[in-house]
Each structure stands twice: as structure tokens, then as C-alpha cells.
Amino acid sequence: MQPRTPRLFIGLAFGLAALSAVAAPLRVLYFTKSSGFEHSVVKWTEGKPSYSENVLTALGAKHGIEFTFSKDGSLFSKDYLAQFDALMFYTSGDLTSTGTDGHPGITNPGLHALFDYVAAGGGFVGLHACSDTFHTHERGGGNNQRRLPRYRSYGEGGDPYARMLGGEFIRHGPQQVAKATVTDPKFPGFGEAGAELNVNEEWYTLKDFAPDLHVLLVMQTAGMEGTDYARPPYPLAWARPHGQGRVAYNAMGHRDDVWDSAYFQAMVVGMLQWAAGRIEADLTPNLTAVAPGHATLQAPPPEMKQ
Question: Signal sequence span per UniProt (predicted)?
Fold first, then answer.
């Protein structure tokens, strides 16, 4: 007869295994390649980490997140991406091109690996200029100067990247203090902001919202400066399923002081934890309920290049 393992030992072993699983660090690739405009918060100067990377390093130490910082698109492959629990993009332009920052672009197989990673169950978080990436009908360079098509909605005909993200950037007006309302304070990290934000930021205008969005922030356009905001309120942050994966986006994150704020840091950590499957959240689609005029876009400025 084989000796029996004491129940106490079995329980302890399972308990330690569970504790180990919970305590395992969340592995995140923070990808900041700028094939178009390069924002100061993601720029490497003399080989030093960017402003946002310094903030994330501190957040990672506090919340058990291991960040890998990269601008090298040539690394993208199925095996490379499989190392990470979630990807976080702060990018711009056509990432298959070298573009502004001079770092290697994503190869076509690498781009397919990205889409497959998310559809198969990976987590994806986008910040700010992530929506100013892979514009519909703008492949083949950085931020294309022929921007009039950005003022049209393409629906299912949009770029596969924009469809995965759930929306696409149009333009922004002058930086200003404006109001964004929190539509789901129960979503991880979004309760920190309270019912609304009134802060100075570079506010993006967006379009082609996926109908299954669970909207987290709504841009309240009334009284804003600039014709870019002459439109009804529209989503500014959201979460959605994509295949078996989880996608979250927040259009904020242009300014250093936004990155320094407790509310934005809480949002970033919460979105990452949700996208990686560490926390569950309600994903009931609410696009038409919280932003019924979302499909009405602003008119292009008269000087817009044809």
C-alpha cells in the first residue's frame, strides 16, 4: 500500500500554488514606435527612458507589472508576443514603415501575428496616439498629409487595426481644460476619477466606433474651443472583446502632468489588469445609450488638403 499524503500537506501545496499564480507578475510589452508624429512622453533622448516609461516603471514596482519597453517592430512574431500577458501601444502612423523615429517597422507577418495574438485571447491596451495609427487608406508612410478621408466613416471597410481597436483618430484642436464624464466607475481603475474629469489635455476627436463598445469616458464637447469639437459628445475611452481577446483604449495621455496624475495611472493599471484577464468587468455595450450622437462628425477645416 502506498503511503497517503496528509490532507494538510495537499491543502498547503494547492494554497502555495494558488498564491504563486496570483503573485506572478503581469508581463506587458509597452510598444512606442512612432512612424508618424513622435510624442514627447514616449521619446527616447540620448538613450534614456521616456517620461512615460519612468512612470510605468514606478507603477510596475507597485502593482506587480513587468514592463518591456520597445520601439522595434521587427521583433513582432507569434513567439515574441506569446511572452506577454498584454500589449500596450502608444504609437503613430503606419507601423510597417520606419518613419519618424527611425526604428524598424513591423513586418507584414508580424502584423498578422499581432492580430492573431489579440483574436486568440491576448490583451491589448491603447493610449492616446494608438488611435492615430494605421489610418484607413493611409498605408505606405508616416502620417499621410492627404487627410480629408479621415472625416468619413468606413464601418466594416475600415483598416483592420482600427476595427480591432474599436475607433479611429480624426484630429485634435488646441489643448484646453475640458470635461470628460466617467460612464462606468466600476470598471477597474476608473472610479479614481470620480464622476467626471475637468483637466487640461490634448483632446482627440474620434470616429468609426465599434457597436459593441463598453464606453468608459465620454468627451463633453459643449463649450470647447475649436471647430474640431463642433459635434455631439463621443467616446474617449472604452473596452471591448475582440475574438477571444480583450481590448481597451484611452485617448488621454498627451501631457506629462496627465501621466503624473493618480486618476490616469489608476486607469492604465486597471485597463492592463482587465486586458490580461486578472480582473473581470461588465462589458455590456452602451455606445448608443451614453453617446447617442457619436456618429456625427465635425466638418473638415477649409484648409484641409485634398
Answer: 1-23
CA distances from 53 to 8, 48, 84, 253, 264 (A): 45, 10, 17, 12, 14
Q: Is residue 17 part of a domain?
A: no
Residue 33 included in any domain: yes
Report yes or no on 297 lying in a domain.
Answer: no
Please list, in sequence order, all residues whose beta carbon lies within 8 angstroms of the beta carbon of residue 129, skipping any fewer than 6 positions away: 34, 36, 37, 39, 90, 91, 92, 169
Domain harbouring 192, CATH code: 3.40.50.880
What per-residue confidence (pLDDT) applies to 206?
Answer: 98
Overall domain count for the chain: 1
Regions of the chain where pLDDT drops below 50: 1-21, 306
What pTM did the predictor assign?
0.91
* Residues 6 or more apart whose Cβ sits within 8 Å of residue 7: none
Encode pLDDT of 235-253 as tens digits.
999 999 999 999 999 999 9
SS3 assignment, position 206: strand
Q: Which residues of 98-129 are buried (b: 16+ CB within 10 A; e: fewer)?
A: bbbbebbbbeeebbebbbebbeeebbbbbbbb
φ/ψ of 123, rounded to 5, equals -100, 140
Nearest CA-CA partner of 122 in 27, 235, 23:
27
Q: Is residue 214 within 8 Å of 286, Cβ to Cβ?
A: yes
